[in-house]
Specification:
Number of strands: 0
Shape: elongated
Length: about 80
């Protein structure tokens, strides 16, 4: 199952979400070359975390969907 979840297609983070994140950063921080590099690194980390969260969610869904219903799965019972 792990191989199936890890190789499955993941919808990328929506561009609108990224734009809203950028809007929260003050313009002075976005315009400085060094800080722009930091913002780019931050976005890479956000994308990585988003993808990992989506894969975890898919795994949880696969585990839970086999039970009597999605509500039958207690998410806190499944280890990270």
């Amino acid at each position: 199952m792990k191989k199936c979840v890890e190789s499955g297609p993941i919808t990328p983070m929506q561009k609108e979400w990224a734009q809203k994140i950028v809007q929260m950063i003050p313009p002075a921080l976005r315009s400085t070359p060094y800080l722009r590099e930091c913002v780019d690194e931050l976005f890479e980390e956000i994308r990585t975390d988003f993808t990992a969260s989506m894969k975890k969610s898919m795994g949880m869904f696969k585990l839970c969907s086999g039970k009597t219903g999605l509500n039958a799965c207690a998410y806190s019972d499944v280890p990270d």
